[in-house]
Amino acid sequence: QVQLEESGGGLVQAGGSLRLSCAASGHTLSSYSIGWFRQAPGKEREFVASITRIYTDTTYADFAKGRFAISRDNTKNALNLQMNSLKPEDTAVYYCAAGPRFVITALRDVDYWGKGTLVTVSS
Length: 123
Description:
mainly beta; 0% helix
């Protein structure tokens, strides 16, 4: 059992940067693959990025490659997402997620969700 809580969302202009964080409690994050998903208004929740359970291999959605960077800090039981060169289409609620699979890339891989943090990118 693990509880996840996101922070760091807000309003940013196009081309700007934002850093999201996820704090975990109840269980160490080292036991899970963890990552980020997002959901824009009127759209389905989609995969953004993840990092493996045992090692630190990362996986990114195509739209995130070269712009977003995911990292984990097991000593602090935390997960981060650095987002650069933000675009208006990045506007969404971003969710921290965890699951027991070696890698999580789909909704079915996720056992635990945070409540989300809103990112709004203005043009």
